[in-house]
Design goal:
This protein is of the alpha+beta class. The chain has one domain. The protein has a 3-stranded antiparallel sheet. Strand 2 and strand 3 form a beta hairpin. Helix 1 packs across helix 3. The N and C termini lie far apart (about 60 Å).
Length: about 130
């Protein structure tokens, strides 16, 4: 049975997938730092700004969830599905996500963060301009 209304489901799902996106970005930073990139700083700067933006949004979502007495808890993962427990109003709702769909959703959030970050970044003017 579904205990979360549509808005609560969207908030909790966004929180979940945004948290996953942050983990991906943190791992990517470590790979770039230890990798053989010739010039690392522009990529690291972009990823750090994306993380900052994601954490800010996630903090706001967490406040909203706390006000609504909501939480999301990881249960299990296998080759095909990941299962999470959504808690709200004293009820529990188990949701299973198809892993390739999770990957696609996280990828979509990464694109959103990237484009938002690029749009809000003060672009430096080249020295030769």
């Amino acid at each position: 049975m579904q205990y979360l209304n549509e808005e609560e489901g969207k908030i909790a799902s966004r929180f979940l997938f945004l948290s996953m996106a942050i983990v991906v970005l943190e791992k990517d930073i470590k790979l770039i730092e230890s990798g053989s990139f010739k010039i690392k700083e522009p990529y690291l700067e972009l990823l750090r700004r994306m993380i900052h933006q994601a954490r800010t949004e996630r903090r706001d979502l967490r406040k909203n969830m706390d006000q609504r007495k909501m939480d999301v808890v990881f249960i299990q993962k296998n080759d095909t599905f990941s299962t999470y427990l959504f808690l709200a109003h004293g009820y529990e709702e188990e949701r299973r996500y198809f892993n390739p769909a999770v990957r696609k959703k996280v990828e979509q959030i990464l694109y959103e963060l990237m484009f938002e970050t690029i749009d809000t970044t003060n672009k430096p003017t080249p020295d030769y301009a």
